[in-house]
Amino acid sequence: MSPPLRNASWTSGLPDPKAHDSGKRVQRTLGAPFSEVSMEPQTPKGWWGRNWKWFVPVGCLGSLVLFAAFIAGILFLVFGIMKSSDVYEEALALAEADPAVVEALGDPIDDGLFVSGNINLSGPSGDANLAIPLSGPRASGTLYAKAVRNEGEWEFTELVLVLDDPSGERIDLLKKGLRL
To answer: How far apart are CA 141 and CA 102, in angstroms?
Structure first.
């Protein structure tokens, strides 16, 4: 004869002798005391009761992804607006046309993704202060542009490329490639 199974459960299907008119059946777990089992039918669980275990993590992760996409969208919008401005395009065109900049960075010159600074416009006047990352096959650097807008035309007051190499060489584009 094989030994009895431990922690096996079975339902006798007989009324509980201790509860004479209770109408409840007993469930006996080997090695454990008698426990009562209700004869009432179980109500089916609703959608939330069946699905909360996967919905909560997916909902939290989905919320985080939506928040990150919202922040990324705002960043791309801001950088896109700055890169499409007249002062940015003029500063980049002047840098790409300057022989000293092409000699230092190499050809072609690529502008970086993250432009920093500010542009203030009030009708036909305004001012701008930008830091534009540039890179080429030979080196990389940052183009610092300060400009004032009068009567709808931008006039640069400072346009300097600072190379990222240890020397920190500066090329002044307004003084026709003067290396400082």
So the answer is: 12
Tell me the pTM: 0.64
Considering only CA atoms, which of 104, 114, 107, 92 is closest in space to residue 168?
A: 104
Dihedral (CA of 44, 46, 49, 53) sign: positive
Read off the pLDDT of residues 58-112 as tens digits, 9 standing for 90 and up. 999 999 999 999 999 998 898 888 888 889 999 999 988 888 888 888 888 888 8
User: Tokens 């190379």 — which residue?
Assistant: 163
* CB 94 within 8 Å of CB 173: yes
Going by C-alpha positions, the residue among 84, 79, 89 that lies closest to residue 145 is 89
* Strand bridging mode 153-163 / 140-150: antiparallel
Are 37 and 29 spatial neighbours (Cβ–Cβ below 8 Å)? no
- Kindly tell me the burial class for residue 87, based on how many C-beta atoms sit within 10 Å of its own C-beta (0-12, 13-18, 19 or more): buried
- Hey, how many other C-beta atoms are within 10 angstroms of the C-beta on 58? 11
What backbone torsions phi and psi does residue 59 show, to the nearest 5 degrees?
A: -65, -40
